[in-house]
């Protein structure tokens, strides 16, 4: 699917999502490579760095992020979520928990946009619902203690 990007940070999230999708399908989480699948696009260095930060952070903390998903989407076992929805949620939760420079509304809106582009018909609503619940957990402080910040950050 060919998507044109005005926003380099969305490009970064998309590159991270594609790479996380590949890592998840393969079941290989140790140092997954950033697999930007569209070589025609030149990502600025800052976008490559952000994509690598997301990819590295999510791959290191995917188990803890899955625990958060389990808490806020208890009717949906993480293993039964679509690979796309699961990794969009992981990226957004990583941003919400570990990247204070990203405004929370932005992290959620970007996740919903990725779900509209790459997910199923119901993905955007599902992602928005889970992240809305997780936001309550962040604001109440119950998420803060889930897992220490991954090494190397």
Q: Quick one: CATH superfamily?
A: NusB-like
What is the helix content? 55-70%
Number-wise, the strands total 0
Strand percentage lies at under 5%
Q: Tell me the count of domains.
A: 1
Distance between the termini: 33 Å
CATH class: Mainly Alpha
CATH architecture: Orthogonal Bundle
Report the structural category. mainly alpha
Q: The CATH topology is what? A: N-utilizing Substance Protein B Homolog, Chain A
Largest sheet report = none
The ordered H/E elements are HHHHH
With helices defined by DSSP (H or I, 4 residues minimum), what is the helix count?
5
Form type? globular
Compact overview of the structure:
The chain has five helices and no strands. It is mostly helical. It has one domain (8-140): Orthogonal Bundle (N-utilizing Substance Protein B Homolog, Chain A), CATH 1.10.940.
Describe the structure.
Mean pLDDT is 86; it is low at 1-5 and 147-153. This protein has a single domain (8-140), classed as N-utilizing Substance Protein B Homolog, Chain A (Orthogonal Bundle), CATH 1.10.940.10. Helix 1 packs across helix 3 (83-98). 63% of the residues lie in helices and 0% in strands. It is built from five helices and no strands. It is an all-alpha fold and 153 residues long. The protein is globular, with a radius of gyration of 14 Å.
Q: Strands, helices and their partners?
A:
Blueprint: H1 8-26, H2 45-72, H3 83-98, H4 104-118, H5 123-140
Helix pairs in contact: 1-2, 1-3, 2-3, 2-5, 3-4, 3-5, 4-5
